[in-house]
Design goal:
Blueprint (H helix, E strand, L loop, with lengths): L2 H11 L15 H14 L3 H26 L9 H26 L3 H23 L3 H6 L4 H11 L4 H12 L5 H18 L3 H8 L20 H19 L33 H23 L8 H9 L9
Helix pairs in contact: 3-4, 3-11, 3-12, 4-5, 5-9, 5-11, 11-12
């Protein structure tokens, strides 16, 4: 028994209560976690699995992008070093948040997943800002103390400033339909509500919509539910922003992707020289096409958030939607 365990046991003994490895007053949280993990593992939600397949494609792509940029950072020209360092840092944060969302969804903590997703969106927004204006990278690198960090946040993120700028930019350049922007704004409101105390957020913590109700179980122990389909759907859309609008990162402007932040970028402007012999280079380069085609599929299916049905899949492949969306 550890020193800390002896202290806790002694404190309960002073209250005439038991606290041992076999018996204690109240619930053992680690036992609740064990039961929750077992319950969630046995609860298969096919539609959630479909969303995770697409989500994992994005997560895998971001890992490859991070690896490519990080492995070549010492060979990058001095004028691009700040931008490269920042992208390495931000990509790492995006990947960390994405894994957290995945684990929270599978563990049945959708509200917490939405809260992490809200933070993930800010990291993505910052990467887009730097893709449009690389000079911001040096400002970000200087946010190593709280005062400068707070000032940076107020300048670029306060009251959703960065996200509003992105939506305006997307609409101005015909890169997103107004209906899609309206849907994204609606989801932004839901994420904001999830991040702050509210009656609705408190309720779904206890009874997540769409969870298994065949046996008594409180949602705060972790209850995997279909409501996470919507969370993953929005996460996919958020992760797709950088894939589409920062298409010149890291290999320079790609043919067919002349819009977004790559608009007007000269062909020679690149962080890294593309090498077709490198598997991860190919993954980043070709993966963009695959991911954006998947986004088109998500847009087609988001009304149901189910992503299933043979007819839907066959109709989609027979249509023009399978072609990659271009900015």
């Amino acid at each position: 028994m550890s020193h800390t365990s002896r202290i806790i046991r002694r404190l309960w003994q002073m209250q005439n209560e038991s606290w041992t490895s076999k018996k204690r007053i109240g619930l053992w949280p680690k036992e609740a976690v064990r039961i929750s993990d077992k319950r969630n593992s046995a609860d298969e939600i096919p539609t959630l699995g479909n969303w995770l397949l697409i989500y994992d494609e994005f997560l895998s792509w971001y890992i490859s992008l991070y690896t490519v940029v990080h492995s070549k950072i010492h060979n990058i020209g001095s004028e691009d070093i700040a931008e490269s360092k920042v992208f390495t840092l931000l990509l790492g944060a995006v990947i960390s948040h994405s894994f957290a969302i995945r684990k929270l969804v599978l563990s049945g903590f959708d509200l917490a997943a939405k809260q992490v997703l809200r933070s993930l969106c800010e990291y993505n927004d910052l990467m887009l800002l730097i893709a449009v204006d690389p000079g911001i990278a040096k400002e970000f690198l200087a946010t190593d103390i709280q005062e400068r960090s707070d000032a940076f946040w107020r300048k670029y993120f306060r009251k959703g400033k960065a996200r509003r700028q992105f939506y305006q930019y997307a609409q101005r350049n015909d890169a997103a339909h107004s209906e899609m922007i309206d849907w994204r704004k609606q989801e932004d409101s839901i994420l904001s509500m999830s991040a702050h105390p509210s009656m609705l957020a408190s309720f779904v913590s206890i009874a997540p919509p769409g969870c298994d109700e065949s046996s008594p179980w409180m949602g705060f122990f972790g209850a995997k539910a279909e409501v996470s389909n919507r969370t993953l759907c929005y996460a996919i859309m958020a992760l797709s922003d950088f894939v589409l609008f920062a298409s010149h990162i890291p290999f320079g402007p790609k043919e067919g992707y002349e819009g977004g932040a790559a608009r007007g970028i000269p062909p020679e402007r690149r962080l890294i020289e593309f090498d077709d012999g490198e598997e991860l280079h190919r993954h980043v380069n070709k993966g963009r096409d695959v991911l954006l085609s998947l986004v088109r599929y998500v847009v087609e299916a988001q009304e149901t958030t189910e992503l299933e049905g043979q007819r839907l899949i066959e109709d989609w492949f027979d249509s023009d939607a399978v072609e990659v969306a271009k900015p």
